[in-house]
Specification:
Length: 439
């Protein structure tokens, strides 16, 4: 294989960019042996060139536009993040006909179709493996490895911060504020964790992944989102007694032909489900294809080196020309696929976990079961711990499959009862897929 040089401009050299620079330096010979290509870092653009915690000898600068237009730059790697200057540089690179490698799921989730169309207009491409799932090659799997499949469902743990917090609440019995403080201390959560704990980060990733899996253009607004910040520690204990753990799941399902249900919310997952074992900052995505069945992708969902691993994989595939071919041929990217048809969450069929705090007095349970029965909700289990008569006591109910709209109506009626202390807690339960049961 002929030895050729490919010039790279790295826009951003923080957590991920620093990792990319390290791999390009430390694995230079390995990459050259494998590909016949020398990957040459021509520019490293940062905001503050005086920072001292960077690799020595990098070609550091601040003029992104000069780096993008340098004729010796073949690939622009956008690792600044956000939707501000990153978008500006992204567009400039595409307009110059240069492929862009990015880890920026916020930008793709908000302006994906426009940027993909711009890339196509200028006969170039966008590579974005690192935008979802950190080091897990899930985008490559969806666009290449599973291309023979009609995807029926995708269920993922795609936010490491939330998964770390929920794992601490499950295993140590911590409250949400305690678990969040620990995540911040260990660097798993930002000082402002809102994007993560609100479920929005997971939704942005679901928009990208489900778009590829279902050939649909999906925006964050198409997704029903509930975060983890209102979860109470006692629900983790009660879920455990019932054999479940609580996970923030990002779920996309084909429900009736073309329509999808798209949702991100805390979910009870049975302890025997493989996703229940995904702990700490790890991520996992279960994909259900009509030919492959269930395929599980598991690994580190963020962090310097795992994310850099995906970025460098994209750089190599762009340098080899395989990304350009896929981008040109495959009709799966947001600008080439139709707008998603969403089935509203009120039409969801799911099992539910309800925790009600009711006065321990005659007739209360009968009243609750009557309200549920009126909405055609049938019960799977009822759990109540013994207390002195007249006190308020948690009653936990799990249901068989029920319609979300009916469950919300029943909850509204239950909440209005004077026998209740505070609003009911309602969490959805996901059952493990049939093909896994009994294995
Ligand atoms: N961190 C992760 O684990 C992870 C995982 C998956 C995806 N991502 C995505 O990867 C991207 C980068 O994240 P990160 O964690 O590496 O961010 P980061 O550590 O904050 O690094 C951002 C870099 O961009 C530079 N920068 C910021 N504003 C700039 C500007 N106006 N002009 C030029 N350079 C500018 C910063 O310069 P200075 O160094 O001078 O401040 C820094 O080098 C984001 O899109 C993020 O969502 C991150």
């Amino acid at each position: 294989m002929a030895n050729k040089s490919v010039g790279i401009a790295l826009l951003g050299c923080g957590i991920v960019g620093g990792g990319v620079a390290a791999i390009l330096r430390d694995q230079r010979e390995l990459l050259r042996q494998r590909t016949g290509i020398s990957f040459d870092l021509r520019h490293v653009i940062v905001r503050d060139p005086k920072k001292t915690d960077r690799l020595a000898g990098l070609p550091i600068g601040t003029d992104a536009m000069a780096a993008i237009s340098d004729p010796k730059v073949d690939i622009v790697c956008e690792l600044i993040g956000g939707t501000g200057v990153a978008a500006e540089y992204f567009q400039s690179a595409l307009k110059a006909g240069k492929p862009v490698v990015t880890a920026n799921k916020s930008l793709l989730a908000t302006r994906g179709p426009e940027l993909f169309a711009l890339a196509r207009k200028h006969s170039t491409c966008i590579a974005f493996e690192a935008s979802c799932g950190g080091g897990i090659p899930i985008i490559n799997a969806l666009t290449h490895g599973l291309v023979a499949n009609r995807i029926d469902a995708m269920v993922g743990i795609v936010n490491g911060t939330c998964n770390f917090i929920l794992t601490q609440m499950t295993r140590n019995g911590w409250t949400y504020p305690q678990a969040l403080a620990e995540a911040q201390k260990l660097g798993f959560a930002e000082a402002d964790p809102t994007l993560d704990v609100s479920g929005r980060d997971a939704a942005q990733k679901l928009a990208v992944l489900a778009g590829l899996a279902f050939n649909a253009t999906i925006e964050e607004a198409d997704i029903h989102i509930e975060g983890i910040d209102k979860l109470a520690d006692q629900d983790f204990k009660l879920a455990n007694e019932l054999g479940y753990v609580i996970k923030l799941l990002a779920i996309a399902e084909r429900v009736d032909g073309a329509r999808l249900v798209l949702r991100v919310h805390p979910t009870l997952v049975h302890q025997t489900d493989v996703l229940a074992e995904v702990s700490g900052s790890f991520n996992a995505v279960s994909v259900y294809g009509n030919a492959v069945g269930h395929a599980l992708f598991y690994g580190r969902g963020a962090g310097r080196m795992p994310t850099a691993s995906s970025v460098v994989s994209d750089i190599v595939n762009v340098a080899l020309g395989t990304t350009q071919l896929a981008f040109k041929q495959l009709n799966i990217f947001p600008d080439t696929s139709p707008k998603v048809q969403v089935r509203p969450i009120s039409e969801l069929n799911s099992r539910y976990y309800l925790r009600l705090v009711a006065k321990d007095q005659p007739g209360v349970l009968a009243q609750i079961t009557r309200i549920l029965s009126d909405q055609k909700i049938s019960l799977s289990a009822i759990m109540q711990h013994e207390v002195n008569s007249g006190q308020f006591v948690p009653i936990v109910i799990t249901t068989h499959l029920a319609r979300e709209g009916s469950v919300q109506k029943a909850i509204a009626e239950i909440n209005s009862s004077t026998a209740m202390s505070g609003p009911a807690v309602c969490l959805r339960i996901i059952d493990q897929p049939r093909e896994f049961a009994g294995l």
